[in-house]
Amino acid sequence: MARSKRTTKEKLLDAAEKLFARRGFHGTSLRDITGEAGVDLALVNYHFGGKKPLFAAVLERRGAVLNEERLRRLAEVRQAAAPRPASTEAVVGAFFDPILDFLAHAGPGWHSYFTLLAWVNNSPEWGRRLMSKTFNDTVREFIRALIDSLPGAAPEDVFWGYNFLTGALTLSLAETGRLDILSDGLCRSTDVAALKARLGPFVAAGLKGLAQRQA
Q1: pLDDT, tens digit, for every residue of 60-77?
Q2: Number of domains into which the chain is organized
Q3: Fewer beta carbons within 10 Å, N or C terminal of the chain?
């Protein structure tokens, strides 16, 4: 079946996602975006109301898909473990694996999105507001699941653990190439399979280590 034509709004979102990921918010003009999309400049205001609302819409579009998939997987691991809590490893996997699966199997749009997400998450200008609006409800559900998986853990340790895990994730998503240089080519920052094999066990062990301090 032939793919349906993209709407003007989708063209703008795709172009903005690609360029914001490459150049950041301030390095990308509306003329850059409409030129990439092949549409008239006035259509940005018509569809989004300006550059900032367009930036927010870019973040929220795939964020909604990611949230839905994460919560679906979390529900699955909870159901599989019931009546006991899901394991820390299973909860961490439900959080990470949708991203890594999209990276491995989806097209360049998801790669651009995750590059942009890494930048937004580390931006004081955007991280607090946009990340909170898009992801906080889902993240809080995962934090509750992590607390349940770590009986006796201090809640503040779990929140700190989440802070560390999201830092490790967003640095990995940035694919800066520094890992490649440090390892003299032994490791590649774009190697999704290698990342998937290591990130979850690393984070789960760290969370358990924090919980054991309370034992």
Answers
A1: 999 999 999 999 999 999
A2: 1
A3: N
Q: What is the pLDDT of residue 40?
A: 95
Q: Which domain holds residue 150?
A: 59-212
Cα 191–99–170 angle (5° rounding)? Answer: 75
| Residue 158 belongs to domain with CATH number | 1.10.357.10
The reply to whether 127 falls in a domain is yes
* Gap between the Cα atoms of 38 and 53, Å rounded: 20
What's the length of the chain?
A: 215
Residue 211 corresponds to which tokens in the numbers above? Answer: 């919980």
Sign for the CA dihedral angle at 35, 4, 68, 43 comes to positive
Pair of tokens at residue 46:
């018509």
Q: How many Å is the Cα radius of gyration of the chain?
A: 19
Angle between helices 88-105 and 51-81 (to 10 degrees): 130
Tokens 């889902």: give the residue: 138
Instruction: Return the ∠ at Cα 88 (arms to 86 and 94), rounded to 5°.
Output: 75
Q: What is the pTM of this model?
A: 0.89
Best CA proximity match to 115, nearest among 164, 180, 194, 171: 171
The answer to whether residue 171 sits within a structural domain is: yes
Identify how many contiguous H helices and E strands the chain contains and give both numbers.
Answer: 10, 0
In degrees to the nearest 10, what's the CA dihedral of 175, 30, 34, 123? 20
In a domain, 175, yes or no: yes
In a domain, 125, yes or no: yes
